[in-house]
Amino acid sequence: MEYTHETVLLHTAANELNIQPNGTYVDATLGRAGHTQQILAQLTDGQLYAFDQDADAIAAVKQNLVPFPQNLHLLHTNFRNIADALAEVGVNSVDGVLYDLGVSSPQFDDSKRGFSYRFDAPLDMRMDQSQDLTARTIVNEWSFNELVRIFSRYGEEKFAKQIARQIERARAEKPVETTFELVELIKAGIPAAARRTGGHPAKKTFQALRVAVNDELGALEDSLTDALKLLNVGGRIAVITFQSLEDRLVKTMFREVSSTPDIPRGLPVMPDQMQAPFKLVTRKPIVPTDEEIEHNHRAHSAKLRVIERVK
């Protein structure tokens, strides 16, 4: 199957890393290598380590990047393992890390993966096909209260209770097996008037399930925590988010490490040990241009935040 994938903020994100030609960089989300190729183009003697937990992504990049760059190293693991995986190949510090947290177009467009409410498919949603937990497990085995929690917290779905109740009733008769079966239950749980506004009625619930299946927020927090420790002075981390929960987490973590403590009144000069080790490169997130959004609708919710280690 042929896939097309347009990388959001393609040039902007790589440029914000302030790449040094002989530096060591990480693309934490390889995907179909859009950002990877932008970083490689700016390296001479530098090395790039690219992560992806999706074996299909790794295989596609190996096949399509011909000749394969000698300074590109593909790591088939979740980016939450960034520190351990890099240590295994002898890398203990880096000059930049890029995260693109959007689910790649091939994952959405592959009807067998179960990510999309547009295709009828088994309830799966695993980015790492080797893991056990699937969307089917959550929908059919997690309690009513657990379903309400994830729909509310990860999908910000205000009809979470009603949707969870519909699922609970349906699975008492037989397991919910496919995406279209789930879509019908979601629609039944949302009032008709609400279904007519705000896009597809299943969008928020599907997002919540995907986040839960792949522990996306937990993985992001773990990975960013380690990436900040790995960063050399002058190095940068750039993160592209596509939903408010991710953006809020990145904003909070960046603010925590770039904020200085309260300064005692009358102190003429801030002691060096009181200065924050990081500075925000972007006080407000960078967003795509109108032209990019018109050309690539998946860019409309993207936000790019950048931080730099200064000490």
Order of helices and strands: HEHEHEHEHHHHHHHHEHEHE
Structural class: alpha/beta
Instruction: Quickly count the helices.
Output: 14
Beta-strand segment tally: 7
Outline the structure in words.
With 311 residues, the protein is of the alpha/beta class. Among the domains are: 15-25 and 41-47 and 68-104 and 215-255 and 301-306, Vaccinia Virus protein VP39 (Rossmann fold); 123-214, Orthogonal Bundle (DNA polymerase, domain 1), CATH 1.10.150. The chain is built from 14 helices and 7 strands. Strand 1, helix 2 and strand 2 (47-51) form a beta-alpha-beta unit.
Please describe the structure with a list of short key phrases separated by commas or semicolons.
311 residues; SAM-dependent_MTases_sf; Rossmann fold; alpha/beta; transferase; 14 helices
Question: Quick recap of the structure?
Answer:
By secondary structure, the chain is of the alpha/beta class.
Secondary structure elements and their pairing?
Blueprint: H1 10-16, E1 24-27, H2 34-40, E2 47-51, H3 55-64, E3 72-75, H4 82-88, E4 94-100, H5 105-109, H6 135-141, H7 144-155, H8 160-173, H9 179-189, H10 192-195, H11 203-214, H12 216-230, E5 231-241, H13 244-258, E6 278-280, H14 290-295, E7 303-309
Helix pairs in contact: 1-2, 7-8, 7-11, 8-9, 12-13
Pfam families: Methyltransf_5
Family: Belongs to the methyltransferase superfamily. RsmH family.
Main location: cytoplasm
